[in-house]
Amino acid sequence: MTATELITHTPVWVWPLLAALLALGWMQTRARRVSLARALALPLVMLILTPATLVVRLAATGSLTAALAVWGAGTLGAALIGRRRALRPGEHFDAATRRLHLAGSWAPLLIILGIFCLRYAVAATQAVNPALAAQPAFVLATAALGGMLNGWLVARAWALWMLARSSM
């Protein structure tokens, strides 16, 4: 299958989703003030969707338990390593307005694109080469990478939660 065929066989709903994710990531490149709930929304959604996606994708295989364990370990490891570096200079929580003052960064856009590209690549591999997509090494490698990407989101959410909590 050529790249053109792959793109033309991609479900139509994927492209508006990509546009929305790009917009979400782009908004985070600028300094902004947001509620704690809004800052925590994306990481929480990803913490629910990613394991759910693994369950749906791997339910009929023997790799589900191992994939969930590897994803969880990747998420936890990245969160523990990244939480101390997740805040940027000047970021703070204003207790009076109950808003986080966040610096702009390109990192969220890159993480969001990384997660999207990983999921797209896995879906494309399942469509083009299902035997490869079912290989334990492929399943575990993609679960580990997905876990590490999610771990960055968790680290950031954790740091923002702790920042807000310490200011209340």
TrEMBL record:
Coiled coil: none
Pfam families xrefs: DUF6622
UniProtKB keywords: Membrane, Transmembrane, Transmembrane helix
Positions of transmembrane segments: 6-27, 39-58, 64-82, 103-122, 137-164
InterPro entries per record: DUF6622
Protein name in the entry: DUF1453 domain-containing protein
Organism: Vandammella animalimorsus
